[in-house]
Amino acid sequence: MKFKSRKILFTAVLLLAGLASAEPAYAYLDPGTVSYFLQILIAGLVGLSVTIKLYWSNIVSIFKSKTPAAPAEPADKTGGAAKEEDKNKGE
Questions:
Q1: Using CA atoms, how far apart are residues 9 and 35, in angstroms rounded to an integer?
Q2: Is 11 inside a domain boundary?
Q3: Residues 52/59, Cβ–Cβ less than 8 Å
């Protein structure tokens, strides 16, 4: 566990050092480039929403409880002995 946290800390320090020492690029982004990145962003969001829609039942089943359903109660509350008595009375 310590190795993993050291690795993450080292990566963060390198990233911050790289960003701190960066010089201005003086680059130009034309509208076509911005439009292209916007299309990529929208396509990613649509793809993510379709994926979630397809796997929604699997996602929901992860969070549902795994307790079994209660057993069904018998239709007649008096039980089988009362039924036998009713049959004998009719004869």
A1: 36
A2: no
A3: yes
The whole-angstrom separation of Cα 74 and Cα 49 is 45
| 71 burial type by CB count under 10 A (0-12 exposed, 13-18 middle, 19+ buried) | exposed
Do the domain assignments include residue 45? yes
For the chain, how many structural domains are there in total? 1
What is the dihedral angle through the alpha carbons of 32, 34, 35, 41, rounded to the nearest 10 degrees?
A: 150
Containing structural domain, residue 55: 25-63
pLDDT, tens digit, for every residue of 32-48? 999 999 999 999 999 99
C-beta separation of 83 from 76 below 8 A: yes
Query: What gap in Å lies between CA 4 and CA 11, rounded to an integer?
Result: 11
Q: Is residue 39 part of a domain?
A: yes
Does residue 9 sit within a domain?
no
Q: Which tokens in the block code for residue 78?
A: 């008096």
**pTM of whole model > 0.90?**
no
